Amino acid sequence: MSSSCREEDAEIRYLEWDLNEKRNRCFHLRQDELNDICVLRATLRVAHAYLEKEEYEKSLLNYESIVCAKFDVPDEIRARAYHGKGLVHMRRNDDHPARESFQNSINYSSKSNKIGNHAIDTAESLFYLGVIFRKSRSVADIDMSMCLFLEALHIRRSILGCDNVLIAEVLKMIGNIHIERNEQIEAYEVFSELRRIEAACLQKKYKASSGGGIMCVPKRGIIGSDCCNDWEFAASAA
After folding, report:
1. Distance CA 129, CA 132 (A)
2. Cβ proximity of 208 and 236 under 8 Å
3. Rounded Cα–Cα distance for residues 49 and 3 (Å)
């Protein structure tokens, strides 16, 4: 067994121990009252760890324990659990349950006052839902994927700004759809912006590596892996 596999196993064992400890502190409650926020977040972390290790059945079981809970789970937590379910189904190429899960994630995150309609978590579910619709060859599904990508783009720009690799990611998807539709002018505009962003990101990277400033690099996480923000920003200052 490689050292990386041993580290992953050790991390999961710790997360499961942490989850059991939190559950034990709630032992006096009835099963339908086990809605402690720490227990729910610990369950999400365990599900995320199994997903990263590609143990999909165990991951799905933990996500399901949240989305199927009988008690009142905060919308934010349900949104993250549904997003995790969507990722599991997507990796298994189960498009229909993946669609449903991502749509539920969007619905719950939109209801949550803490996250709101313009949260980066919502944009993540919108993007993945667009990717699933993009796999279809029907005109209606391609149109739907374009709408989802545009909405994700709007949210990402409002939070991350314009010169960001995650903006480039969704622009590439939008540009490809324009090419398939033979919309050459629109495709040219999108890919021109894409190239500008790539150049700007390279310049930022060079300045940061040269000690000339701060570079913020978004790191994609999985919704539900920790607290309210699943986009970690690593800042390297001069």
Report:
1. 5
2. yes
3. 16
d(CA 155, CA 123): 6
Residue 96: band (very low, low, confident or very high) from pLDDT cuts 50, 70, 90: very high
- How far is 174 from 118, CA to CA, in rounded Å? 20
Instruction: Answer yes or no: are the C-beta atoms of 101 and 83 closer than 8 Å.
Output: yes
Contact by Cβ (8 Å): 165, 200: no
The DSSP secondary structure of 199-225, one letter per residue, reads HHHHHHHHHHHTTSS-EEEEEE--TTS
63 burial (CB, 10 Å; 0-12 / 13-18 / 19+) is buried
Strands (DSSP E) found in the chain: 215-220, 231-236
Query: Which pTM does this prediction carry?
Result: 0.73
